[in-house]
Amino acid sequence: MAGLREKQKADRRRRILTASSLLFKQSGYQEVHINQIAECAEVSVGTFYNYFKTKADLLLSTVSMEVEEVLQQGDSILKDPPEDPVEALMALTRLYYDHSLVYLSKEMWRTAMAAAIQEGQSPFSIRYRALDKGLCAQVCGLLEVLQENGRLSADMDTRAMGEVIFNNLNAMFTEYSIDETFTLDELKDRVLRQTRAVVKPLIGAA
Amino acid sequence: MAGLREKQKADRRRRILTASSLLFKQSGYQEVHINQIAECAEVSVGTFYNYFKTKADLLLSTVSMEVEEVLQQGDSILKDPPEDPVEALMALTRLYYDHSLVYLSKEMWRTAMAAAIQEGQSPFSIRYRALDKGLCAQVCGLLEVLQENGRLSADMDTRAMGEVIFNNLNAMFTEYSIDETFTLDELKDRVLRQTRAVVKPLIGAA
DNA sequence: GAAAAAAGTTGAACTGGTTCAGTTTTGTAG
DNA sequence: CTACAAAACTGAACCAGTTCAACTTTTTTC
């Protein structure tokens, strides 16, 4: 166990992650070349590719952290959601959106999204979509809780409705990431209006 | 007008489009190199880049054709939509989906989507998003017509609701494009269920 | 119709992510 | 401790999209 080899491997991996994180923040994802990351992390280019399949794969480590954190925080909202369904959904939405820029810039999100779409069978894409599925399941879960609490009509299809609401969240976030002038507040306002339009009609019956 | 120069320009452009269209169908987008397109079109690589900013830009010409055609066909649905709102929306949806593979493969859609996300300020991305906006407006337009016909509750926010429905359509199409095993029929089934979940509650009032 | 200007063409060189054959380091067996 | 095998490291070379300085063709001017 904890042989020299293992120790060095963990150390190198951490050095690469630290270096890239620093450089990306400094100069942006596109501007930073693998050479620079390798140099800054004191490994060779070849070694970089021993630890990460591609440059985009490096991003995924960060995206994963970001989403896993947000999923965990989201669970605490599910445990005791606001009574009003629109408020409950917006609480989750705000959590997702506010957290989105902690580790990643808009540019990094764009790159990650584009890479996830580009080749669907790559491990990158599969993992990214699994994270998305987790978020979608959380939205569906929230609707179920609200339905159980009698805040949403009992015959609502929580699964289908949750998918629609999540897909909308996601699409709006994509739009936000693409447009550098689109602010977080504008994003939340637009999504609030959309969420209202979809959810209001469901509130009546218990 | 019709000077020699103009004539040659139009001819070269057409040759490039014909060549690329043929090659893409033959071998897929990624497999085809600019060299091959240039050779097949009997121009130099440099000339290719005189006519198209990037390889992805070439795709956009095709995407544009595809979307403009579908927009036009969609208008005829708006003129006399099915009475049932779910049916009306699904008529539009089916039109979009069935038309999607006439000119473009899944791989080409993925590439176009990824490129549109990648750099938001490029002419490519701006034009692609304008097309998306056109489709979104058409969905909103359909909801308006249905509302005017008294098939949807009068206080519905057609704009917000249309955006949500379109974003869902689009997200599901993206998922479909990413996953080579996802069939058109499965796609339509899932979107039907989602559309029902969102639209059913709105049908009551006039 | 010749000369100058404008527009367009060309392909070799560039760029930056990725690979791989050769080398070094680490672990293991005798 | 030595010899061998396995694992990991290395950077020069590769690849495919893109650029650009030199060259050709077309148009305009006189």
Characterization of this structure:
The first copy, chain A, folds into two domains: 1-52, Arc Repressor Mutant, subunit A (Orthogonal Bundle), CATH 1.10.10.60; 54-202, Tetracycline Repressor, domain 2, CATH 1.10.357. Chain A contains nine helices and no strands. Chain A has helices at residues 4-27, 34-40, 45-51, 55-79, 85-99, 106-118, 123-148, 158-178, 184-199. The first copy, chain A, is elongated, with a radius of gyration of 20 Å. The model of chain A has no long low-confidence stretch (mean pLDDT 93). The structure holds a DNA duplex (30 and 30 nucleotides).
What's a concise summary of this model?
The structure is a homodimer of 206-residue chains. With 206 residues, the first copy, chain A, is mostly helical.
